[in-house]
Description:
This protein is an alpha+beta fold. It folds into 2 domains: 3-196, Fructose-1,6-Bisphosphatase, subunit A, domain 1 (Fructose-1,6-Bisphosphatase, Chain A, domain 1, 2-Layer Sandwich); 207-334, D-Maltodextrin-Binding Protein, domain 2, CATH 3.40.190. It has 8 helices and 17 strands. It has helices spanning 3-7, 11-18, 28-49, 71-85, 222-230, 248-258, 277-290, 321-334; strands at residues 58-62, 68-70, 90-95, 102-103, 112-120, 131-139, 160-166, 170-175, 180-186, 191-196, 207-209, 241-242, 260-264, 275-276, 293-296, 313-314, 316-320. The strands form 4 sheets. Strands 4-3-5-6-7-8-9-10 form an 8-stranded mixed β-sheet, with helices on both faces. The protein has a 5-stranded mixed β-sheet with strand order 12-11-13-17-15, sandwiched between helices. A two-stranded antiparallel ribbon has the order 1-2. Helix 2 (11-18) runs antiparallel to helix 3 and helix 3 (28-49) packs antiparallel against helix 4 (71-85). The longest helix is centred in the first third of the chain and has 22 residues, at 28-49.
Amino acid sequence: MSLAAEFGITLTQHVLRKQTGHRDARGQFSQLLTQIGVAGKLITAQVRRAGLIELWGATGDVNVQGETVQKLDRIANDTFIEVLKRSGCVAAMASEEEDEVIEVPPQMAGDYVVAFDPLDGSSNIDVNVSIGTIFAVYRRHDRNEVVKSDILRPGREQVAAGYIIYGPSTALVYTDGKTVDCFTLDPSCGEYFLTRENIQMPEKTVQLSINECNEPYWAAWVTPYLDALKSRNDAEKRRVSARHIGSLVADFHRNLLKGGVYLYPTDAKTGRGKLRVLYECNPLAFIAEVAGGAATDGVHRILDIEPQGLHDRTGLVIGTKAEIARVAEFVAKYGTGRA
């Protein structure tokens, strides 16, 4: 038996303990988070075997985003849908991979709706880079039917959010709006154990995550801001390092623990962002704020954005609270137009 299994607190134990007296403590909330963990275990098993059973590569399909669907994308999507559908906790789901809302049959429906990106960073599957699942949980509005406003709502209405990262180990990070906690899957017994409790994002920005090859598309404020950030390095000390993995969930996880800022700015020419509001930005922004950080599209707080469609996109700057405040200063000075 591993030390974790003998002495650690499991995900289920932790969720049940925290939900005592919680306004959403009806049993379903705890069950839902546990079932999300189950889905993560099943996806982990497929990720670990991908190279052995030829799950690399594309299916030949294109999703609603216009992106090539990877084989593991489809497996992760189907796994998440089936586990949540059978959980008895969910009334509807919205997936980055699906055109429309997925409604659960009334006899199986529960109190919550879940929006998720089943496999963030899937373009990195074939090169063995960390990938992950991101999810947002909301309480449904109407007990009798699923309505549009159950899904199309600002991120501030989330009751929980989290992600599962598949890397050297599988880690599940979630918040219930009170704390951010991290669990690591122990493969020897198939359980998640609490490994980081009440995570707070470090106040100092020591890491920068951005694809600098996108510079031709940046708004006027971005380059001056980055120049100012890099200027903190001097002859005395290197205070900021570039760390861009290329999987949003992996970049965010690193910055959450180490202290950093991630930028995928809105395209200055088109006025459109790249990242999905419902499936990526809302859940990560919720986690960041609970952990003491912040997130913006450059002008608006991410959690205040009112999505109009399931697959709305936005720019994203997410990191330490002080860093997001500095971004606001540069936006005010240089503007969001083309440089």
